[in-house]
Specification:
With 936 residues, the protein is an alpha+beta fold. It contains 25 helices and 28 strands. The protein has a seven-stranded mixed sheet with strand order 7-8-11-10-9-12-13, sandwiched between helices. A six-stranded antiparallel sheet has the order 1-2-6-5-4-3, with helices on both faces. The protein is globular, with a radius of gyration of 34 Å. Residues 659-871 and 873-936 have low confidence and may be disordered.
Length: 936
């Protein structure tokens, strides 16, 4: 048992790459059978195929492994949980062995009955006696782990000589130089071209031309034969989707024959609905590639009116921001709420392949989506996309309203209503007013009342609780929806739409082939064979980027955009500057966002004639919420406090070097268990103000973000941002070991001012670790800023972001202000200069709002010294220690406004929205600089 104890104690290795080989694994040597030493390693059993592909792609000796022997314990067979028990045993051997059909080679007795054929075709002629092989065991003790025993890792024969590959001189000029089979990429290319209707002769002609251009064959793929392509074409032509007359039995048979394409399957039962999750290996790779630290969108209701079961598509966005489906979920409509199971199965499959994979945001287009399950499984923010409703409104407006001006007016009012709802200024009543005002348009209003008015309550709730996705996302979703309609719903016999096995078969063959070819770099070689289904190209957003501003002319209520197809034609866009604009182009008449509308929106927002996007407004509101509230996360608060203390000591050394001599060794307190994280905060808060003095002293909030940098620019627009995602801890926090020094806390109640030196949001975009950040986010090609839509740029976010006084005040509940309140010194920073504003409270007893303003006067060191001496005098006369800063102190634009009277600490309340995560601030050159300094 010592052998198995040693094996089971080995770590399970899971390299983060899509494929890995033996060179990427650390091998261990343990005692084996007959006193041999085995070379072993443990990997996840689900990644055995990845190991096979990586080991086959050996540059020194390309090959392929086949299953030489397999033993599997039946699932229903009872077994004892033994430590050395095996659920499955697989022997993989190099395809150039173990037999040797070369002259003088050795053939195993079990294969001696083989009769050579007249034609040199088939596997036996590739046998060259290679002894490279390895064993995979699935243990009863750890069913999810595969034990790999790899003793023979050299591609040599029994004589120890190279038997195939570039190192074998006798293999030069033969197929033994290369792998015995074509690569998976070429196989998918051939199958995809055959599925979309390209002939065998055309495929071989294009392939031979490419081989000639490179000067002859250099790998196994260059040896593609006409016979192989013809055999694949015959297999496709003879296949059928109807495996059984019963639809349910046919689906079950398809699932059994395609286990690698299914990540979740739940058959019909009395308690559970039918659910099938389809994801091919290529789709899984695209999800890992484009979904990591990026966005995944959901198209939840495709084919609701035609198909037996609607398709729920999960899509990612490639480098051109085009949608790629990475999973299809087929289930009845009533089971849309049971998404937790297949989400967990999908997340587990992705994490098995790449443990570091993390999603930045999940976009839904259905207000009834299970948002809680999405957040639980994917641990990311959730956004809402309104493209489906806008698409339906636009399409029916064009169909049911005869006059273009009436269409434009209805669309304008609907757009304004949605904008008010998203900004929290209206509810369902705004749509009731529209129905009363536009009663003349009876056809469209009847449609609106019957279809959309009953659903508006659910949509309004979603729009007010979830951030809105950007216009670029809407354009990509519309483009994907149109592709699916052309590629899937094009059957001459509509009766097949009522069979689920037809839907599953077509998704896995033709539809998958079209999307695979969209990513194929040499697809233009087959452009003459394209059909309507092979619709490709750029999205409307990308097309709009190619239209110059000079081609747009604003003329009051409408705009003219010169057509890219002909300079003598111009498209008219009504309601310029709004995404609910009406254009007369063919793409817009189908209800889609066209490039002309998007270009006019860009021009109008650049010249300031239209409001910023809703997404940008929600992002600004998230920043305002961060200004008004400290973080709830104790880790962030501890880091902010410790950093502020460290900077305060640096400032004290500049203003009064003697103050740095009266500090306490915090390191010793931590060793003695006296100063915990909360105690550190209490000490800092106690040093903030004295009980008897009652001075209202402004301190930099640990979690505040200063709005003082009015001259700096935040290039953000239409960001797919969830305010709740700001609660995730940011990356790049400072270590407590390097921030809290030994003299961080002062003795005898000496002042200890908190200074905000965190990285500035105005200069640094959210980090990759934040839930709303995407390394492959929406940005212009010339910009490296993630998740920024350059066409929707908001030039500046000024320091006056808090527009209402209510957002920047603190009210005393008892209605009294301290008559003995001293002056409040509020420090801010403008363009790197520290500025202070000394305010004297009114002696009246009315509660007065406290506001922070930028001032033009810089406080000198003499003012600080005078204020310090006055404070020290009051401290000496105080009968008690310093007053601790309560949790109810209101962070005002990154500055704490403390109560004026010590007795009123418990009676003060602050108007504060929900807590949001703060972000750190940095100066433009990357150095950490204090943004504000406060003295008590």
């Amino acid at each position: 048992m010592a052998r198995w104890d040693e094996i089971l104690s080995l770590p399970v290795q899971n390299p983060p790459t899509l494929e890995f080989s033996s060179a990427d694994i650390v091998w261990s040597k343990v005692e084996g059978w007959r006193d041999n030493i085995d070379r072993v390693a443990l990997i996840p059993f689900a990644r055995v195929d990845d190991f096979l592909r990586g080991e086959s792609a050996n540059k020194d000796c390309p090959t392929r492994f086949h299953v030489e022997a397999r033993r599997r314990r039946p699932p229903q067979m009872p077994y004892k949980p033994k430590v050395d028990g095996i659920l499955e045993y697989i022997l993989y051997w190099c395809s150039f062995g173990p037999d040797d059909h070369r002259k003088g080679g050795i053939v195993r007795p079990s294969r001696s009955t083989y009769v050579p054929k007249k034609k040199s075709a088939g596997r036996p002629n590739t046998k060259r006696g290679c002894i490279c092989h390895f064993i995979v065991k699935r243990l009863i003790a750890e069913p999810s782990v595969a034990l790999i025993i790899y003793n023979q890792d050299k591609h040599v024969d029994k004589k120890g000589l190279p038997c195939h590959g570039p190192q074998d001189k006798k293999a030069a000029g033969t197929r033994a130089m290369y792998a015995p089979y074509i690569s998976e990429d070429l196989r998918l290319r051939v199958l995809s071209l055959l599925h979309v209707g390209v002939s065998v002769e055309t495929i071989m002609q294009r392939h031979n031309e490419s081989v000639e251009r490179q000067g002859g064959p250099c790998n196994r793929d260059d040896l593609l034969t006409h016979r192989y392509v013809r055999r694949q074409e015959r297999s496709i032509r003879r296949s059928t989707y109807e495996l059984d007359t019963d639809d349910a039995i046919s689906i079950r048979m398809w699932v059994e024959s395609h286990p690698s394409h299914v990540f979740f399957y739940q058959d019909f039962s009395d308690s559970e609905p039918f659910t099938l999750g389809i994801q091919t290996e290529w789709q899984l790779q695209q999800m890992i590639r484009f979904g990591n630290r990026s966005l995944v969108a959901s198209d939840a209701r495709f084919g609701t009116n035609k198909l037996k079961y609607p398709i729920h598509s999960l899509i990612v966005f490639n480098s051109d921001k085009k949608a790629i489906p990475v999973a299809w979920i087929i289930a009845p409509m009533f089971s849309s709420g049971d998404a937790l199971k297949w989400m967990r199965a999908l997340y587990k499959r992705v994490h098995t392949k790449d443990p570091t994979w993390k999603l930045a945001g999940f976009i839904v287009d259905d207000p009834s989506a299970d948002v809680l399950s999405i957040r639980e499984v994917f641990q990311c923010s959730v956004l809402i996309c309104f493209w489906r409703v806008r698409h339906a409104w636009h399409k029916n407006l064009v169909k049911k309203c005869s006059g273009i001006e009436m269409c434009a007016e209805i669309s304008r009012q609907l757009g304004q209503a949605v904008s008010k709802v998203c900004r929290g200024h209206a509810s369902v009543g705004v749509f009731e007013d529209i129905m009363e005002d536009l009663i003349d348009s009876s056809d469209f209003m009847d449609y609106f009342k019957a279809i959309w008015y009953p659903r508006m309550g659910m949509w309004i709730s979603a729009l007010q609780t979830l951030p809105l996705a950007s216009l670029e996302t809407c354009a990509a979703m519309e483009f994907y929806h149109n592709q699916m309609k052309l590629r899937l719903l094009n059957e001459k016999d509509p009766s097949v739409y009522q069979r689920a096995d037809w839907l599953i078969d077509k998704l896995g063959t033709k539809v998958h082939s079209y999307f695979w070819l969209d990513e194929y770099s040499e697809k233009d070689d087959f452009s003459r064979y394209w059909r309507d289904e092979w619709v490709s190209g750029l999205t409307s957003w990308r097309k709009a980027l190619k239209i110059p501003d000079s081609d747009v002319a604003l003329e009051g209520r409408f705009a003219k955009v010169i057509s890219r197809q002909g300079q003598d034609r111009a498209h008219t866009v009504w309601n310029p500057g709004s995404e609910y604009a009406i254009c007369d182009c063919s793409w817009a008449e189908m209800g889609n966002l066209c490039e002309h509308v998007l270009k006019v929106i860009s021009v109008c927002r650049n010249n300031g004639s239209s409001m910023p996007s809703i997404s940008l407004s929600q992002y600004k509101q998230a920043l305002v919420n961060m200004l008004n509230c400290p973080p709830n996360d104790s880790l962030i608060r501890d880091h902010a406090v410790s950093l502020a203390v460290h900077v305060q000591l640096l400032l004290n050394a500049l203003v009064d070097p003697e103050s740095s001599q009266t500090t306490v060794d915090v390191a010793k307190q931590l060793q003695n268990g006296v100063a915990s994280a909360d105690q550190q905060r209490d000490v800092v808060r106690q040093n903030s103000c004295t009980k008897e003095s009652g001075d209202g002293v402004g301190h930099a909030a640990p979690g505040g973000i200063g709005v003082e940098t009015a001259e700096e620019e935040i290039p953000c627009s239409d960001m797919d941002v969830d305010p709740s995602s700001i609660c995730n801890p940011p990356t790049g926090l400072f270590s407590l070991d390097g921030i809290v020094s030994n003299d961080s806390f002062s003795e005898n109640g000496e002042r200890c001012c908190l200074v905000d030196t965190e990285p500035d949001m105005a200069e640094n975009n959210p980090s990759e670790g934040d839930a709303f950040t995407s390394q492959d986010g929406f940005e212009d090609d010339d910009s490296g800023t993630p998740l920024l839509n350059m066409m929707d740029m908001e030039p500046h976010i000024h320091s006056q972001m808090v527009e209402s006084p209510e957002e920047c005040k603190m009210i005393h509940q008892n209605g009294d202000c301290s008559e003995n309140a001293g002056p409040s010194i509020v420090s801010t920073t403008v363009n790197g200069n520290t500025e202070s504003n000394e305010t004297f409270p009114d002696s009246s007893s009315k509660p007065m709002p406290v506001e922070v303003h930028l001032v033009d006067k810089v406080e000198t060191s003499s003012d600080v010294t005078e204020d310090k001496e006055r404070t020290d005098t009051e401290i000496k006369r105080s009968p008690s220690k310093n007053l601790p800063l309560t949790e109810n102190a209101d962070p005002l634009n990154g500055i704490y406004i403390l109560p004026n009277d010590a007795d009123e600490v418990g009676n003060e309340t602050s108007e504060c929205p929900e807590p949001s995560q703060n972000h750190l601030s940095k100066s433009g050159d990357g150095e950490q600089k204090p943004k504000s300094a406060c003295s008590s």
